[in-house]
Amino acid sequence: MEIKELEIYTSKIDDQIKFYHEVLELEMIKKSGSSVSFKIGNSILKLTYRKECTPYHFAINIPSNREKQALQWLKERVEVLTYEGIETQYFDFWNAYAIYFYDVDKNIVEFIARKKLQKDSNTKFDNNSLLGISEIGIPTSTMVNEYQILNNSTGVKIHSGTLERFCAVGDENGLFILINKEIKKWFPTMDVAMSSDFKIKFSEKGKKYMFIYENEKLHRIA
């Protein structure tokens, strides 16, 4: 699965533009009065103004061998979120290293180096090293229902976890992270997981799809 575009909402669009364009140095590819789009590898992150909105968690794939360089690059720009004093988290069940930080809206953003993808790089790590958006969190009280909608519409399958507490759906290139918001919070900060609205465009086995997550319900719109 490959995430082509992720649209999330922000009440601080000017501050977010400065953060993503000036702090993370992402290329701004489109801007209007109410939205802005940034290039992240093979993906687009679109931020749209909304007076009231709640935080997200999403992840960005980085080269499989560049977690140490990514950590240093980030530490020059943001405060890295730690867990038990550790800056880089290792997930043995995925064989991946992750680094977390907040953006202006307290969205938890993750850089993740997935060893199984074998997407190594020998160049200096910078903003151009980002490979693409690889995860979007879907906190919900109805994990089974949201999974069935995805699976029935697109054929995407469970990558890891179960439909009780935590379930990653898709593959290492692109994942929907379903969590039971009644019993699980976001790692590594233990922030309350909010069912934040978003729109997403992605491809699966050569077919293109568009979904909207709104009022804690997932809908296919194209």
Tell me roughly what share of residues is in helical segments: 10-25%
Anisotropy-based shape: globular
Instruction: Return residue spans where pLDDT drops below 50 for at least 5 consecutive residues.
Output: none
Largest sheet: 9 strands, mixed
Helix and strand content put the structural class at mainly beta
**Beta strand count:** 16
- Ends: how far apart? 16 Å
Proportion of strand residues: 35-45%
H/E element order: EHEEEEHEEEEEHEEEEEE
Number of helices: 3
Mean pLDDT: 97
Provide the gyration radius in Å: 16 Å
Describe the secondary-structure layout.
Blueprint: E1 2-10, H1 13-23, E2 27-31, E3 35-40, E4 43-49, E5 57-62, H2 67-75, E6 80-81, E7 89-91, E8 96-102, E9 108-114, E10 132-140, H3 143-154, E11 158-161, E12 166-171, E13 174-180, E14 198-204, E15 207-214, E16 217-220
Parallel strand pairs: 1-4, 5-9, 10-13
Antiparallel strand pairs: 1-14, 2-3, 3-4, 5-10, 6-8, 7-8, 8-9, 11-12, 12-13, 14-15, 15-16
Features:
mainly beta, 14% helix, nine-stranded mixed sheet, 222 residues, 44% strand
Word description of this protein:
It is globular, with a radius of gyration of 16 Å. It has 3 helices and 16 strands. It has helices at 13-23, 67-75, 143-154, and strands at residues 2-10, 27-31, 35-40, 43-49, 57-62, 80-81, 89-91, 96-102, 108-114, 132-140, 158-161, 166-171, 174-180, 198-204, 207-214, 217-220. Strands 5, 6, 7, 8, 9, 10, 11, 12 and 13 form a 9-stranded mixed beta sheet that branches. A 7-stranded mixed beta sheet has the order 2-3-4-1-14-15-16, with helices on one face. The longest helix is centred in the last third of the chain and has 12 residues, at 143-154. With 222 residues, it is mainly β.
